[in-house]
Design goal:
- The chain is of the alpha+beta class.
- It folds into two domains: 48 residues, Structural Genomics Hypothetical 15.5 Kd Protein In mrcA-pckA Intergenic Region, Chain A; 171 residues, Pseudouridine synthase, CATH 3.30.2350.10.
- Helix content is 19%, strand content 30%.
- Helix 1 packs across helix 2.
């Protein structure tokens, strides 16, 4: 049995490529070891069979942004091939590297479910950070109670309650127990506090849009890729 060597070295020997090319093939998910895709150039191999996908391309892997329909109360995020939305309109070859070094931007309201943004792309992270005060976040709130039309108008202009000034919100009833609210850069407990100020019992809430990106039909607990042409 031979001594273990780095996968990248074995790929160089077998396919006559440079070290850089070998690493691009491996990190691109084009190399199989004993039938299993391995994306780590430093992975140690011995005498296992090594295959290079005939469709392999020498392209560096671009960072990706994932959109997850987070479930309220779940602290562990369900990121992996098994939780990928089968109807993702922006699907691509799924790599395990897509789930590494993901950073959350614009956190959900405390206790909320809905659209969660996770990105490896520093440009996306910076845009969301710098544009936070301009990007609308849209929530559906399940509530119990009544809200007079006059109070609805006060909320739209910025509710003042017991010395607390709330930011202006776009607010409308979707049904007898469902309010749609759009607000920019809300603090983590804003909707809880606003509900209390309005005399409403907040039963649940779900974020359905951030800027120009909606959650749409993404099922709870599943994720999809951010499309190339989608803009927050």
């Amino acid at each position: 049995m031979s001594e273990p060597v780095r996968l990248s070295k074995r790929v160089i020997e077998l396919f006559g490529c440079s070290r850089r090319e070998a690493e691009l093939y491996i990190t691109g998910g084009w190399v199989r070891v004993a039938g299993q895709v391995i994306e780590a150039p430093q992975y140690k191999v011995r005498d296992e069979s090594i295959e290079l996908d005939p469709n392999a391309r020498l392209e560096p892997q671009e960072p990706v942004t994932l959109l997850l329909h987070a479930v309220a109360g779940e602290t562990r995020r369900s990121l992996g091939p098994d939780s990928h939305w089968s109807e993702d309109p922006h699907t691509r070859r799924i790599l395990y590297s897509h789930f590494q070094r993901q950073q959350e931007s614009l956190p959900l309201q405390q206790g909320a479910s809905g659209l969660l943004i996770l990105s490896q792309d520093w440009r996306t992270q910076r845009k969301l950070r710098e544009d936070a005060t301009r990007l609308e976040q849209e929530y559906l709130m399940e509530v119990r109670g009544e809200l007079p039309p006059a109070m609805l108008e006060r909320v739209k202009k910025g509710l003042l309650h017991k010395g607390r000034q709330f930011p202006p919100c776009k607010l409308s009833w979707q049904s007898e127990q469902r309010l749609r609210v759009a607000v920019k850069n809300p603090p983590p407990t804003l909707l809880h506090e606003m509900s209390t100020a309005l005399g409403l019992e907040l039963l649940g809430m779900r974020r359905i849009r951030v800027g120009g990106v909606p959650m749409a039909k993404l099922p709870a607990g599943q994720w999809r890729y951010l499309g190339d042409k989608e803009r927050f």
